[in-house]
Amino acid sequence: MAEPFIRLRNVEKQYLTRNGIVLAVEKVNFDIYESEFVAIVGPSGCGKTTILKMIAGLIPYTLGEITIAGKLVNRPQINLGIIFQDSVLLDWRDVLDNVLLQIDIRNLDRKEYEPKALELLRDVGLDGFEHKKPYELSGGMKQRVSICRGLVHDPPLLLMDEPFGSLDALTREQISMDIQHLWMEKRKTALLITHSIPEAVLLADRVVVMTPRPGRVAEIIDIDLPRPRRLDRLPEEFNEYTGHIRGIFQDSGVLHLE
Amino acid sequence: MTQSIAELGQLERRAAWRAKILPAIGIILFLVIWEVAVRLLNIASYLLPPPTEVLVMIVEHFDALLKHSGVTAYEMLLGYFMAIAVAVPLAILTTASRSFDNFITPIILFFQTVPKIALAPLFLVWFGVGTLPKVLVAFLISFFPIIIDTAVGLRSISPEMIDLARSMGASNFQIFTRFRLPTSLPYMFSGLKVGATLAVVGAVVGEFVGADKGLGYMLLVTNSNLQTALMFGVIVALTIQGLLLFYIVQFLENILIPWHITVRSGQEHGTL
Ligand SMILES: Nc1ncnc2c1ncn2[C@@H]1O[C@H](COP(=O)(O)OP(=O)(O)OP(=O)(O)O)[C@@H](O)[C@H]1O
Ligand SMILES: [Mg+2]
Predict the structure, then answer these.
(1) Residue A118, in any domain of the structure
(2) CA A140 to CA A164: how far, in whole Å?
(3) Given ligand 1 and candidates A12, A13, A15, which is best to mutate, with the most ligand atoms within 8 Å of its CB?
(4) Do B167 and A56 touch (CB under 8 A)?
(5) Residue B266 binned pLDDT confidence (cut-offs 50, 70, 90)
(6) What pLDDT digit, counting tens, does each position of B105-144 carry?
(7) Does residue A109 form part of some domain?
(8) What residue numbers bound the domain in which A91 lies?
(9) Is the residue at A86 inside a domain?
(10) pLDDT tens digits, A193-211
(11) Residues B167, A88: C-beta atoms closer than 8 Å
(12) A80, A91, A146, best to mutate vs chain B, most B CBs in 10 Å
């Protein structure tokens, strides 16, 4: 197999807090290959956000090594798009300008990227809303804008930290379908962090299951299901995968079903 | 219950109309009751003059009121702009450097706790009866809401927003100008508005302590001459001055941060 695009080797993160050192992530090893969709699931506080931020170069790691395309991550990575749980749109920019923020800050040619931004907005069902301000949008619409902002500059890597976290169930389903659609079209390397086992299985090629704090990799599961995967036509194996992951959480004491 | 868009529009127009007309009715009602009560109860004019008499006084002494208003307005504006010119950069520095914050914040807090009114006589001793001591009191009194609200605003940016900016390769300067500063504007403006209403208080307090012109001076003179009706006129002039500055700042706010006006739920995060 080819060289991994992202490689985490024995990565460890300790936070220094008032009450001493917190070991958030311990000896994490996994790889993400180019054009692969990887999801991380794990209980709250197991270090998922920490891992994502370390990969993005936004916080330093304590031990180990992270490389992207063979280069050591030791500063903020700019060749990527990030989508957070909160849409973090700029209130003073309209929808189109929020998407094009990427382009403005990177000093790219706005004219060249504007058609692309409009196309992305159309893809997620936001045509006609280009010139609305964020306060005129619903939470789900705002999150779609932030997805477009994460993709408009055509980054080779997309990082998503619970992008559905603050949305209602119906919107979650719709946006996960949007993401699958966009991913199938563009085949970016993608890392999705989520609490939801079905969402992870629905979207990912591989699911990294984490243990409770300190976060370690409990198991990495290949999801061998054909795409597009649809929530209304889930194959038998889907439930086997989710059941298996649930089992891991039960074993590590995260889930009690009685 | 059903409600058509047309009905909704009508309701909204009515509400807007009510919002304009009701305060006016309230004020007029208040003045009428005042007038009638004073005349019916035969209250002496030097105790409480009726509004009509105040109006007559304002018209009669209009030139003097205008002249003294000019003096106070000058002191107030100079103090206010000085406060902005010092407070905003200081707020920026405190958010930019932790050490500077640790150094300056206790000093600012100390001066905030000292009653500024108590400093006015001291300024008189130091700087005489000229314009400077009034400007200084106006400056000091409007300085604190501006620096505190601006600093709060500059810190109100979410950590995710900064992560986002850094993942786009934004420089520290860009993070400040493109993200942090615009985010702080609504907070900054609530400080500016509180500061505007306080600046006029500062100028008048400065004049109380020692002055030969200005509305504060006129207030003292009319008071000692028992010209109560004219005194009310001076108070009206002062109020108009404070309101005018407040509304100018609010107007600038509407222009500069329209995105915030429309979402604001009517509450301000002002500090006093
Ligand atoms: N800046 C920080 N300082 C100190 N401790 C931190 C910091 N950030 C995270 N932690 C700790 O590290 C651990 C992992 O946090 P992290 O945010 O990565 O968890 P998470 O898996 O993303 O959780 P969630 O699913 O709730 O978002 C937690 O125990 C948290 O308390
Ligand atoms: Mg998290």
Answers:
(1) yes
(2) 9
(3) A15
(4) yes
(5) very low
(6) 899 888 888 888 888 899 989 998 889 999 999 999 999 9
(7) yes
(8) 81-154
(9) yes
(10) 998 999 999 999 999 999 9
(11) no
(12) A91
C-alpha distances (whole Å) from B155 to each of A17, A145, B259 are 21, 25, 19
Q: Which residue has the tokens 């992305």?
A: A120
CB contact under 8 A, B179 and A91: no
A188 in any annotated domain: no
Q: Which domains can be identified in chain B, with CATH numbers?
A: 54-262 (1.10.3720.10)
CB contact at 8 A, A210 and A25: no
Give me the residue from A82, A91, A134 closest to B164, CB to CB.
A82
A30 lines ligand 1 (CB under 6 A): no
B34 CB neighbour count, 10 Å cutoff: 16
Q: Which of B86, B49, B168, B237 is nearest to A80 (CA)?
A: B168
Q: Among A39-53, A68-82, A242-256, name the one with the lowest average pLDDT.
A: A242-256
Whole-structure pTM value: 0.84
Q: What is the mean pLDDT of residues B87-98?
A: 92
Minimal CA separation from A94 to chain B, in Å: 10
Number of domains chain A contains: 1
Residues in chain B closer than 8 A to A52 (CB atoms)? none
Report the SS3 class of residue A202.
helix
- Taking only the tens place, the pLDDT of each residue in A97-117 is 999 999 999 999 999 999 999
Q: What tokens appear for B96 in the block? A: 């930019």
